[in-house]
Amino acid sequence: MTATHLHTALHLAATGVPVLPLRAGKVPFGNCRPCTRNACGGRPNMKAPGPCACPQPCHGWAAATTALRSPQWARAWREAAAVAYHPGGAGLTIVDLDNADAIAWARKALPTTQTVATTRGEHWIYRGTMPSANGVRPGVDIKSLMAYARWLGPGTGTMSGLPDVVRALIVKEPGTVRATTRTITVPAPAGSGECRHRTPAYLERGITMAEQRITEAREAVHATVYRTFLAVLSTHGWCGCLTDAHIVRLFTAAQAKGESPRHCADAWTNARTALGM
What we know:
Distance between the termini: 54 Å
Strand content: 5-15%
Number of helices: 9
Order of helices and strands: HEEHEEHEEEEEEHHHHHH
Shape: globular
Oligomer: single chain
């Protein structure tokens, strides 16, 4: 069966789907000894920005990759009990329906899409990404960014684009979004260096490109956010032209990829520290 799991994983990776092995119990392999209890700093599993240097299949969903032939992964695949993948890394969102009642609700409330049978219910798969969330309604979980799902086959039906009705499932009340915005309290650098912005369009183009870089990240979202913040600060952060409004735009893009306000603030602070600001 292990050979079958690896064959499946290689096929998925070849199509651009980041995969990871699951051990008995259908859970990811634990962190290796150097990374035990996040001794490595937790990178890249949501504790700090930047890539972890460990080449082992550590850090749960963040271990998902399309590069499977490194020797460090060999043992994990020999012991694999199942194959999982990172839906968000593949540009997908799964509506995980755990029981018959949840399936009945989905058939009434959601657009039809590609469907995969599970041991207890169904996965409805849509094209597009969003933050993951558990228990958005009875028997319904969302698996997309910063989550993993078992690979149970291609399923049936034609995949549809991610509808607004699914995105709305994670919004509990109008105040939720406003509260997220209020948590962004990181000030823009005051700046005292030479201004390199010949026109306002130069800065605007830089912020737009940074938002796009974060939005298009398919893997290593934490590392991408940190590196993007670092690039923005190194180019636009010395002269004082960078405003709080620009930072809100960057944080908003990062949170749309699943980053929390706290992680955004930490990444921004670490980037400023790295540059000596």
